[in-house]
Design goal:
With 475 residues, this protein is of the alpha+beta class. The protein is built from eleven helices and twelve strands. A hairpin with a 5-residue loop joins β11 and β12. The longest helix has 53 residues. The chain is rod-shaped. InterPro entries: 2C_sensor_his_kinase, HAMP_dom, HATPase_C_sf, HATPase_dom, His_kinase_dom, HisK_dim/P_dom, HisK_dim/P_sf, RisS_PPD.
Length: 475
């Protein structure tokens, strides 16, 4: 509660003298905060996606490893077969047939055989692991004198050096036959598998998140006092979720009964006290002759009657109907009765075009309670006058309202308890006796209207009551 109060207080600028100080707009959440506050759906989705993509990558590497050795052996076998067949054809062909054979091999198969000279410059073939494995397999099949090069006399290609009857030759073949296992096929399959995995992760995350989302919505409705709308499905197939829903529904029913009994008890007690108080007031007026004693007794009875009114306000269980309400109109009506009070000085800085979604009567009670609280406990120790500032500003579809006094304030350790029912702070702020329900009624009423409430210690002295309501849409 204290942290919430400090946050809301930070959204307001201080009033300095008679200058008009507008309220600050709440800062936008930082990017790092947005990233660390992902919903459960996105957290689950990202974790599942990471797991699935990692599994796909692992399977891809496994498949490539399983294919690696067979592909190396098969490629080396094909190249060795080309060399052996070329050697055999050239050995057993006559001179005229050898020329035709070389021409046919070059045009039909893309194989070129040329003599290997002693001054030929070549670059040894070096590539990935697959290329090295194929090179070793070729040397094993063709002999240790076999040379494999990627460039001979500045001409690129796959060059295989071998001997024919003791004479060295070069065989130039297609480099694509010796390439690594790359291509569009792996990319396509990887993209398809990744897309299907992400869709599956999204579906699983949605199925996991759906009951939790319903539970979160029901809990929020129950927090607002709407126990009827917080009922969850007790017939779902998942046993754990069904047990949670049943337990939550039973808890909501118990809380609804407790709330109803509490409201009924407070209303009954308050109603039953009205009759003896009325008789006591009448008997006091008729039987007490001392005017001073009669005035004190009448004041005590009036105070008890006011306390009973507070009980009835706090026990009110009904929901409010929200409508477009002019904030300045409600503020003016609440301030009107205090304008002629000698111990109150009120400054109002509210835009006349501000419209809020609220119940006009309830909003009037809220502002009247806060003004009365500031009048009682926010008086200056020097002049005995309560200087009260009222200001409001629209921000991000909300209207932020601030009512601040210039009294002595409260101790920081008591700030979080001021809005609790029946709590009484230090004597300086509780000199006037009351029910201890004023701020609790304000907070509860604002919650019923979908707003928020907090208290803060002003840096310039006094207590600041801050609340917000939804801004009414423009018509």
């Amino acid at each position: 509660m204290a942290r919430k109060s400090q946050l809301l207080e930070s959204r307001f600028t201080e009033f300095e003298g008679s200058a008009v100080s507008p309220l600050e707009v709440p800062p936008v959440a930082s990017a790092s905060h947005r990233l660390t506050s992902l919903s459960l759906f996105w957290r689950t989705f990202f974790l599942l996606a990471l797991l699935l993509l990692g599994s796909i990558a692992a399977w891809l590497q496994t498949l490539r490893a399983l294919e690696f050795e067979p592909r190396a052996v098969q490629t080396a076998q094909q190249l060795a077969s080309q060399v052996n067949l070329s050697r055999a054809a050239l050995v057993y062909a006559d001179s005229i047939g050898r020329v035709a054979l070389l021409k046919t091999m070059n045009t039909e198969e893309g194989l070129r055989i040329i003599p290997r000279e002693a001054n030929d410059q070549y670059v040894p073939f070096s590539g990935d692991t697959l290329s090295k494995e194929v090179t070793q397999e070729l040397i094993k099949r063709l002999g240790k004198s076999t040379v494999i090069a990627s460039r001979v006399n500045q001409q690129p290609g796959l060059w295989i050096g071998f001997d024919i009857a003791g004479d060295p030759y070069w065989l130039l073949t297609d480099l694509a036959r010796f390439g690594p296992t790359t291509g569009k096929t792996w990319i396509i399959w990887l993209a398809v598998a990744g897309a299907l995995s992400l869709c599956g992760a999204a579906l699983i995350a949605r199925l996991i998140n759906r009951p939790l989302k319903k539970l979160s919505f029901a809990a929020s409705r129950m927090r607002e006092g709407d126990f009827g709308a917080s009922r969850l499905d007790e017939t779902v197939q998942t046993a754990e979720i069904r047990d949670v829903n049943i337990g939550f529904n039973r808890m909501a029913q118990s809380l609804a009964k407790v709330e109803h009994d509490r409201a009924l008890m407070l209303a009954g007690i308050s109603h039953d006290l009205r009759t003896p108080l009325a008789r006591l007031r009448l008997e006091t007026e008729l039987s007490v002759s001392d005017l001073t004693a009669r005035a004190h007794m009448a004041a005590d009875i009036a105070q008890l009657d006011a306390i009973i009114d507070k009980f009835l306000d706090y026990a009110r269980p009904d929901r409010v109907e929200l409508a477009r309400v002019s904030l300045i109109s409600v503020v003016d009506s609440c301030v009107y009765s205090l304008r002629n009070q000698p111990d109150v000085n009120i400054s109002v800085k509210v835009d006349r075009n501000l419209m809020v979604m609220a119940d006009e009567v309830e909003l009037g009670r809220i502002i009247s309670n806060l003004l009365e609280n500031a009048r009682r406990y926010g008086k200056s120790s020097d002049s005995g006058i309560a200087n009260i500032d009222i200001a409001a500003v629209a921000s991000n579809n909300w209207v932020l309202v601030k009512i601040r006094d210039h009294g002595i304030g409260v101790a920081p350790d008591q700030l979080a308890n001021l809005s609790k029912p029946f709590f009484r702070g230090e004597t300086a702020r509780t000199a006037a006796n009351g029910a201890g329900l004023g701020l609790a009624i304000v907070e509860k009423t604002l919650q019923r209207m979908g707003g928020g409430f907090s208290l803060a210690i002003s840096s310039m002295g006094g207590l600041s009551a801050n609340f917000k309501l939804q801004q009414a849409p423009k018509v």
